[in-house]
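Person: Please work through this fold.
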Amino acid sequence: ARRHGLRRIVAFGSVTRTDFRPDSDLDLLVEPAPGRHLGLRQRVEFLAEAEQLFERDVDLVAHGEARPSVADRIEQEGVVLYGPAA
């Protein structure tokens, strides 16, 4: 996370609920550190590393890019994997 300039990584979706299955993907919210930008190259590199680490497909959502309803759900059910709680 530090190498990619991330402030926070939050898991959300089925991984945080009882409907998570062995074939479920992993939904992650990534928030860049202040003054950092998460460009396409950084996203692709982080995504590849996360999929290798977790051995499953990963869907990335960048902080501030989610629809309001999705952002609300992430705040309610999300589990912080890296960084501060809020």
In short: The longest strand covers residues 6-12. Residues 12 and 76 are 9 Å apart (CA to CA).
